Amino acid sequence: MRLLLSSADTGEELIRWQRATSDYRRCHQRKEFCNWPKLRPLPLRPISYLMVGDYSMKELKTIERRIASLNNHLFPKPSLFSECRQLSSSPASAEDSYRRIHGEVSEEPVVWRPALDESGKEFTDIHYEKAVGEGIAKITINRPERRNAFGPHTIKELIRAFNDARDDSSIGAIILTGKGTKAFCSGGDQALRTSDGYTDFESFGRLNVLDLQVQIRRLPKPVIAMVAGYAVGGGHVLHMVCDLTIAAENAIFGQTGAKAKVSSYFASDIFHVQVGSFDAGYGSSIMSRLIGPKKAKEMWFLSRFYNAYEAEKMGLVNAVVKLENLELETVKWCREILRNSPTAIRVLKSALNAVDDGHAGLQDLGGNATYIFYGTEEANEGKRAFMERRCPDYSKFPRRP
Ligand SMILES: CC(C)(COP(=O)(O)OP(=O)(O)OC[C@H]1O[C@@H](n2cnc3c(N)ncnc32)[C@H](O)[C@@H]1OP(=O)(O)O)[C@@H](O)C(=O)NCCC(=O)NCCSC(=O)c1cc(O)c2ccccc2c1O
Fold first, then answer.
1. Residue 240 Cα, ligand 1 centroid: separation in angstroms?
2. How many whole angstroms separate alpha carbon 139 and alpha carbon 165?
3. Which among 185, 238, 233 is positioned nearest to 209, based on CA atoms?
4. pLDDT at position 94
5. CA-to-CA separations, 37 to 65, 93, 390, in angstroms, rounded
6. What is this enzyme's class at the first EC digit (predicted)?
7. Can you tell me the mean pLDDT for 241-249?
8. 53-57, 194-198, 265-269: range with lowest mean pLDDT
């Protein structure tokens, strides 16, 4: 259905609009502030016949396009396109064509169903859940009495849950979070720390959180950290290796490792932290990428804590929301991701990590190329020829520029 200017609009109103749109365009090009005159929004209605003033059809089309575009900016609500729905959380124009076609992201509360691991075992240190009827998995570190600090067993369970979410083709986005509102994760459990790592049920120590970091980084689905309260030490590194971070207003971010004795400043409070540890792997390199080397050095050398808004400004988190909205907002981000092409997202995640991950990054990206190539007729010809014990005929496949 074409939208045309209603014949009810007088030529005068139209002329005022045309002048205003030209002024606006000029100001916009010069990046100047433009005083927008008081004009009533021109209603756009379908009509079969159009005749306004002395304007040619071409001129009218140009005016119509400009008015539509300006109306989108100036009168987002109520919409000229009354049938369109709005995506409230999006920073983009509420009425762009994507939103007109796809509509709102659902704000319905999510229903979680407990999930078991691949061998049907119950988890102890984590909760693992999947959203009913949607492709979202949620993995929650469940040690709130220790601010969700992890031991080797916690990490083993996290690895199993992430493996399951990776293998489950109905899952397209994974949330990592911590139980309660006081902490996302406070890093390695210091009570389990030994001279060779962390140990709980074994006689030797491990630093197996490093395996989990690599797993998250290579997982071909987006992993979103949902952070309430503290994300510190190894817990801070965990949120950094996730693809996105949504933070509640009460979130606090920091590295504690280099601290020899006391006092790190946050909002003029002094915290007493004393752990003596560092993550010179992803914990350093990814941080430097995210917030720049100077800020990364500040974060590690001074061991300060940063609030959610400071973290957002630094580029550590994607969004800050009210604590009570944290889960729904995170779920909405997942739902928005889930509307998009899984293969595009898979390759993009790999591509965005490739340079930083060196050979391993290229290997992952290369693997994605092979994965896509296997779906082509050209690749299939090779396989068929082998199976049929004949020479492959690649002549029919174009050598594209
Ligand atoms: C996180 C805090 C700032 C919270 O302070 P708050 O005042 O809210 O709470 P409490 O301090 O009273 O804590 C409540 C309760 O939890 C226990 N707890 C908290 N964190 C841990 C922890 N990491 N380990 C063990 N226990 C913890 C605390 O003792 C209290 O217990 P009670 O029995 O007394 O009630 C604050 O708690 C804090 O600063 N925590 C320490 C955070 C920290 O320094 N983490 C870094 C550890 S090192 C690390 O994470 C790490 C792990 C690895 O596997 C690595 C591998 C390779 C390289 C580097 C690694 C690495 O650095």
1. 17
2. 9
3. 238
4. 62
5. 19, 21, 75
6. lyase
7. 98
8. 265-269
Q: Average the pLDDT over 57-67 and give the result.
A: 65
The 10s digit of each residue's pLDDT in 352-377 is: 999 999 999 999 999 999 999 999 99
Percent of the chain with pLDDT over 90: 67
Phi, psi of 354 (to 5 degrees): -60, -50
Q: How far is the CA of 146 from the centre of ligand 1 (A)?
A: 7
Q: Which two tokens stand for residue 167?
A: 């293998």
Ligand 1: centre distance to CA 141 (Å): 14
> 273 with 303: CB under 8 angstroms?
yes
State the distance from the centre of ligand 1 to the C-alpha of 188, rounded, in angstroms.
7
Distance between CA atoms of 258 and 301, rounded to whole angstroms? 7
- Antiparallel, parallel or unpaired: β 223-227 and 173-178: parallel
* Higher-confidence position of 396 and 78: 396
Ligand 1 within 6 A of 148 CB?
Answer: no
> Would you say the CB of residue 229 lies under 6 angstroms from ligand 1?
no
ipTM of the complex: 0.98
Whether ligand 1 lies within 6 angstroms of the CB of 150 is answered as no
pTM: 0.79
Q: Is 273 in the pocket of ligand 1 (CB under 6 A)?
A: yes
Tens digit of each residue's pLDDT (9 = 90 or more) over 176-199: 999 999 999 999 999 999 999 999
Report CA(251)–ligand 1 centroid distance (Å): 15
Most informative mutation of 147, 199, 239, 271 for ligand 1 (most atoms within 8 A of CB) = 147
Q: Where are the beta strands (DSSP E) in 39-79?
A: 44-45
- Integer Cα distance of 77 and 81 in angstroms: 10
How far is 93 from 99, CA to CA, in rounded Å?
A: 9
Q: Is the dihedral of CA 173, 174, 180, 184 positive or negative?
A: negative
CA atoms within 13 A on the CB side of 142: 13
| Residue whose structure tokens are 């965005």 | 352
CA-to-CA dists, residue 2 to 44, 49, 60, 78, 304, angstroms: 10, 11, 13, 20, 58
